[in-house]
Ribosomal RNA small subunit methyltransferase A (Ignisphaera aggregans), 283 residues
Amino acid sequence: MVGLPPITRSKKVLRRWVIETLRCLEIKPRKKLSQVFLVDPKPLFLITYALREQNVDKVVEIGAGLGTLTTYVAEIAKPQKILAIEIDWRFVPILSSIQREYGQIDIVIGDALNILPSLRGFTTVVGNLPYHITSDLLIAIGRSDIVTAIVTVQYEVGERLVASPGSENYGKLTVFIRSLFNVEKLAVVPRTAFSPMPEVDSVILVLRRVRPYDETMSNLEKVTKCLFSYKRKLLYKALLNCLGDTARECLTKLGDVDWNRIRVFETEPELFLKIVRTCVENQ
């Protein structure tokens, strides 16, 4: 008989439960799904306490897995509704046991990338995002109605999201997310906090929405996709390549920009938004 995830501050207790539960359920983690499991309770408490501060009624969890975070959220943050999304049917037995204990949990077996666009009434998401689709999930969260996201991502992705213009990690994902959210780095999670141990460290991020996803943001995605294919070119040359004659007509309307110096990867998110509004939407 598999017990429920323990609410504990002991690494030893949590690690033993994870290993024993995987053995009892005869589950071997699948690399293609980036399946790793937290065996250190500290990140679980950090995520849960950050969530509790939001005082929200409904929460979506991406990648429920063994239901460890699900249980901590239900027991400590106590939202009225938790929608736990898990793609792997092998976790249904343990998730169903947790659901019987905590009546506010609904389980959905499916792909979060397909479910997020159709969600209504949920404004907060938590989860340890699978490494192989982290960027896709962040984009899906950005395009959704989600207002707050408290998520664990691989360290390199976290660095991209907090990168400054002109740095090596600055790219179109940075611009997209930072145009929509304030990004806070909550804590670094060492690779030893997971079993099986991944090859990289992770970081817990808190994303707080500052603007909705709208037509301007949709246009921003298209424009930056093209512009960042010329990442190190001067911005005005990249604009000419991406927008053609439209760029020539609108460059003078963009105000005090040093066109002979600024390159694509040195451009602030706000200037990209201004380019979209001036050169795409007002033509």
